[in-house]
Automatic annotation (TrEMBL):
It comes from Streptosporangium lutulentum. It comes from the Bacteria. Pfam families: DUF2784. Keywords: Membrane, Transmembrane, Transmembrane helix. This is DUF2784 domain-containing protein. The keyword Transmembrane helix applies. InterPro entries: DUF2784.
Length: 134
């Protein structure tokens, strides 16, 4: 039971990781400090795609499933098993990757645009000047 729980938990965290990688930059529009976590997650995603290094979450899920007596993940890992051919056709992998890159870049540009100083605000403040009613 414990090993299976490890495998299932790793799978859920992996899905959440991928969702955060795709849209975390937009969350940083609301919570600006999240941009640093999103930069790290996006860097890891890019590194894993470019170098082919195996994700520790894939390793943890595979280990948990095998030790629970289940079949482990196939050689392609998490993406090949849960995403490609299910969420989108395998032949569109590069197009989907490009779409995620564009989505991330748009979120970062939007984050920068939202963080720029507003001309009517004092530099370094996030609030508009108070309105005096009289």
């Amino acid at each position: 039971m414990g090993y299976r729980l490890i495998g299932e938990a790793a799978m859920v965290v992996h899905f959440l990781f991928l969702v955060f990688m795709a849209v975390g930059g937009f969350l940083a529009w609301r919570w600006p400090r999240l941009i640093w976590a999103h930069l790290a997650v996006a860097a890891w995603g890019l590194t894993s795609v470019v170098t082919g290094v195996e994700c520790p979450l894939t390793v943890a899920e595979d280990w948990g499933r095998r030790n629970a007596g289940e079949r482990g993940l196939p050689p392609g890992g998490f993406i090949d098993h849960y995403i490609e051919g299910i969420v989108y056709p395998e032949e569109h992998t590069n197009l989907v990757r490009l779409g995620v890159v564009i989505l991330v870049l748009v979120s970062w540009l939007g984050h920068l645009w939202r963080r720029r100083p507003h001309p009517r605000r004092k530099a370094g403040t996030d609030r508009p000047p108070p309105v005096h009613q009289g």
